[in-house]
Write a structure and sequence with these properties.
It contains seven helices and no strands. By secondary structure, it is mainly alpha-helical.
Length: 187
């Protein structure tokens, strides 16, 4: 059953990013460069931390998302937002500094906790941008992320801080983005 949930989360990852990538290329969605730069690094590292802690199928979506996030990062250079504030720079620097102790520890729990903190920090430039312009994000992609992270938690082979904190935090942060999009869009 956990393998089936792992496969479903991978499918949701890909399906959720198809409209996001399409809307980015069309200029409708404007991903934030700093957010995707941090996510590209952190998602890959979180995947390896989850794997080391025995997450099993619950980590598959994190690995696929690392690849998809790198694709969006590349697209950011041409299609992303150029709306960068001092606060965005502070979050980028804080996230990059927080990665240092991650590399210095061999403890997968500490590594995933740090990765989760960094990943949550990476949401803030996108949250700020989306609050100002809720149409700059693809709602369906964020909604599918909610389901994906919930299912990823259910697909975990073992429940420990190192395995569930990352998808749980992303579930909450995606809910925040969905809420902002829905509450700020003019209907």
């Amino acid at each position: 059953m956990k393998e089936l949930l792992g496969v479903i989360t991978v499918v949701l990852s890909v399906v959720g990013f198809i409209p996001y990538i399409r809307d980015t290329i069309k200029g409708k969605t404007k991903p934030h460069l700093f957010t995707y730069l941090i996510w590209a690094i952190v998602t890959a590292l979180a995947f390896f931390g989850q794997q080391a802690a025995g997450a099993g199928p619950g980590a598959w979506t994190t690995g696929v998302m690392a690849i998809l996030t790198i694709v969006v990062l590349i697209l950011c250079f041409k299609y992303g937002t150029n709306d960068v504030t001092r606060l965005d720079i502070i979050f980028l620097v804080a996230a990059l500094i927080a990665i240092i102790p991650w590399f210095l520890t061999s403890d997968p729990t500490l590594s995933v906790v740090i990765a989760t903190f960094v990943d949550v920090c990476a949401f803030f430039p996108t949250i700020r941008k989306t609050f100002k312009d809720p149409s700059s994000e693809t709602l369906i992609s964020w909604i599918l992320n909610l389901f994906r992270h919930g299912l990823a938690i259910l697909a975990l082979a073992s429940f420990a801080v190192a395995t569930y904190i990352y998808p749980a935090a992303l579930l909450v942060m995606n809910a925040v983005v969905v809420s902002i999009i829905l509450s700020r869009r003019k209907i």
